[in-house]
Design brief:
The complex is a heterodimer. Chain A has six helices and seven strands; from the N terminus they run E-H-H-H-E-E-E-H-E-H-E-E-H. Chain A has helices spanning 24-32, 35-41, 51-68, 116-131, 146-154, 183-189; strands at residues 14-17, 72-78, 84-94, 99-106, 136-142, 158-169, 172-182. Chain A is globular and about 50 Å long. Chain B is built from six helices and seven strands. Chain B has helices at residues 18-28, 32-38, 48-58, 111-126, 141-150, 178-187; strands at residues 11-14, 67-73, 79-89, 94-101, 131-137, 153-164, 167-177. In chain B, helix 1 (18-28) packs across helix 3 (48-58). The radius of gyration of chain B is 16 Å and the shape is globular. Classes of the chains: A alpha+beta, B alpha+beta.
Chain lengths: 190, 188
């Protein structure tokens, strides 16, 4: 029988949820002060944001969702106590071509390297391919982000593009890598 | 006046006048093949008013967010396309370049390649970028050849990224580093 009772947003230890306007902004502001985290999550210069600026970002995000309909974004929470542990989104969706870009990160340092990123990725893939019906997904990663590269390989992504020396950090040039996964490849392995 | 920086062998690059740009672009956008070579979005048209306002919006920022030019033929000063450096990352010195020749009678005559050579010189000697990136669709072999001639190297492909006429096509990424460009242009 067709089982529609699978909870798309839920993993074993985490779940993907909406923004909590009352609580999340203080925590996310702290994350933006963690330059190591920002250098893994973003491609532009690290730059800290105040809680008020984060709130403005929320409004801009929700406006984009409303008007452009090319973005799905989530907050990652631990199921045990509902605390905010990270961010996830599928962005730059092109509906006619069926493609989108993945972005996610575990913001709280004590929650990293526990497999929460792997769980998040599994939920995002199921959502992108079974709910949004995308044909393929792309993830952009800096050459120095070894944890993300290992995670994407494990999930079946293939390195597709290597933009040489696209980043300059700490006086070194680094490549920017695009990983891709087709819906058909994901179905074969799951 | 010395405008050698903006001048190639067949074309020269000039400022974008929103009104002139809109009139030309609206005409070119009736050609769906042109649109499908330029953009992965669905081919669609806009009014002159809309295109003009869009161009004005692009130019609001000072210093500019994009370095964007009209391409004119050297002999008649006719506007034949546009070219620009977009999504510039100043800390890394990277930018995407996009070029389009709207006058389809002129396709395959080296105008796009010449415009690209002019903007590459501008990117590397005036903006001092470290590299220039671009994407080209698998179904655009003319574009691919032109970029190869300018020195771009293929850096990979997003597989089956585009969906056109019932088929999937790759999105090809290309890149050119400043040192590679200098080497090519010393030798020639």
């Amino acid at each position: 029988m067709y089982d529609m009772q699978i909870q798309l947003f839920d993993g074993q230890r985490i779940r993907l949820t909406e923004i909590d306007y009352d609580k999340d902004y203080e925590i996310e502001s702290r994350w933006t002060h963690d330059s190591e985290f920002m250098r893994l999550l973003e491609f532009g210069p690290a730059y800290p944001l105040s809680p008020a600026q984060i709130k403005k970002r929320y409004e801009a995000l929700e406006k984009q969702v409303r008007e452009e309909k090319n973005l799905f974004h989530f907050r990652i929470r631990a199921r045990e106590d509902d605390r905010l542990v990270g961010l996830a989104s599928i962005e730059w969706i092109e509906w006619t071509n069926g493609n989108g870009f993945l972005k996610f990160g575990i913001g709280s340092a004590q929650d990293r390297s526990q497999g929460l990123g792997t769980e998040t990725l599994q939920i995002l893939l199921r959502y992108a391919f079974n709910e949004l019906n995308l044909y393929r997904l792309t993830a952009m990663v800096q050459e120095y982000n070894q944890a993300a590269i290992a995670l994407l390989h494990k999930a079946g992504f293939m390195e597709e593009v290597r933009r040489r020396q696209c980043l300059l950090r700490d006086n070194r040039r680094w490549d920017l890598i695009n990983f891709g996964l087709l819906q058909s490849e994901w179905r074969e392995q799951s | 006046m010395n405008n050698a920086l903006y001048t190639g062998k067949l074309v020269h690059l000039t400022a974008v006048d929103p009104e002139t740009y809109a009139a030309s672009m609206v005409k070119w956008r009736r050609d769906s093949e042109f649109l499908r070579l330029m953009d992965s979005d669905p081919a669609r048209q806009f009014s002159i008013k809309e295109m003009k306002e869009w161009a004005e919006k692009q130019q609001e920022k000072n210093p500019p967010a994009n370095y964007w030019f009209l391409i004119r033929k050297l002999d008649q000063d006719q506007i034949i396309g546009d070219i620009g450096l977009f999504e510039i990352s100043w800390p890394a010195g990277d930018s995407f370049v996009g070029v389009g020749i709207g006058e389809r009678d002129l396709w395959g005559n080296g105008y796009g390649t010449d415009a690209m050579n002019v903007i590459l010189r501008y990117a590397f000697t005036e903006l001092c970028l470290h590299r220039v990136s671009l994407t080209v669709f698998e179904y655009n072999p003319r574009g691919l050849r032109s970029y190869q001639k300018c020195g771009f190297r293929e850096e990979g492909r997003l597989r089956q990224y585009l969906h056109r006429d019932g088929r999937r096509w790759d999105l090809i990424f290309m890149g050119l580093l400043r040192e590679e460009w200098h080497k090519l242009n010393r030798e020639s």
